[in-house]
UniProtKB/TrEMBL annotation:
Keywords: DNA-binding, Transcription, Transcription regulation. Residues 45-64 bind DNA. The keyword Cytoplasm does not apply. InterPro entries: EthR_C, Homeodomain-like_sf, HTH-type_TetR-like_transc_reg, HTH_TetR, Tet_transcr_reg_TetR-rel_C_sf. One of its GO terms (biological process) is negative regulation of DNA-templated transcription. One of its GO terms (molecular function) is transcription cis-regulatory region binding. It comes from Amycolatopsis acidicola. Residues 1-23 are annotated as: Disordered. Residues 22-82 form the HTH tetR-type domain. This is TetR/AcrR family transcriptional regulator.
Amino acid sequence: MPGPTEVQQARRDQGPTTGRGAQRREELLAAARRVFERKGFIETRVSDIAKEAQVSHGTFYTYFDTKEAIFKEVAHAVIESMLASMAILIPSEDFHDRVHDSIRRFVQAYRPHATMLALMEQVGTVSPELRELRLDARETFVRRTERGIRRMIDAGLADADLDVEYTAESLGAMLEYVCYVWFSLDRPFEEERLVGALSAIWEKALLPLPARKGTRKRAGRAR
């Protein structure tokens, strides 16, 4: 494949300069996502994306130089969509409500993007560049969890002695993997029951020690 023309390179570097160009680029991204989700990353070819978008090869290369480049754009859009859907907090100071709401919103944000997230996981094992993309995406969610834990500590709701960084890493990994098993490996779960169980685990990990002891005592009396 010959290198891009000056016009093509300028469009890739600067983005579309017209409304029609911006629309065409968005159509290519939407088409690429459909093809990636249908065929997987390895089996997808540029010609498949161009056909799905009903454009020529030349039009594809006007905006993207490889399928890896457009995959990265689609992946970034997935992460931005997930973050936007999790941005609104419930107006509650109750510890249980805040944890439960956080878990539920992550599940709801993950569900529509499960196939792309699974592809990002798979592609990261074969491409160093895309592995960094997957790690960056995970880092975004871990840091978000870390900020949430720190806010709870500042409000006196969570244990001030927590190792916040590694607690966020561990709880985030658990939540991500459960969603992967649920939505990508099709393990059937009862949503309310699972969200409740995940919330209980998070609460026990985050609560100050006296509150954890009180929780165990109450659980013991209930049995």
